[in-house]
Amino acid sequence: MASHELTRPRRADLVADAAEHAALLEALMEQDLSVVASLVREHFNGAEG
After folding, report:
1. What does the alpha-carbon distance between residue 14 and residue 17 come to, in Å, rounded to a whole number?
2. pTM (2 d.p.)
3. Is the pLDDT of residue 35 over 60?
């Protein structure tokens, strides 16, 4: 296996990240700070595990 294959994100992961970013942008545009806070919290809690 080539080294770049070990670090390249899977397509499903990229699609999931894009969906999270879209949700965050939508919440920011709507100025829904409780949703923004929740999405950011979930993002960083997920990054730990």
Report:
1. 5
2. 0.70
3. yes
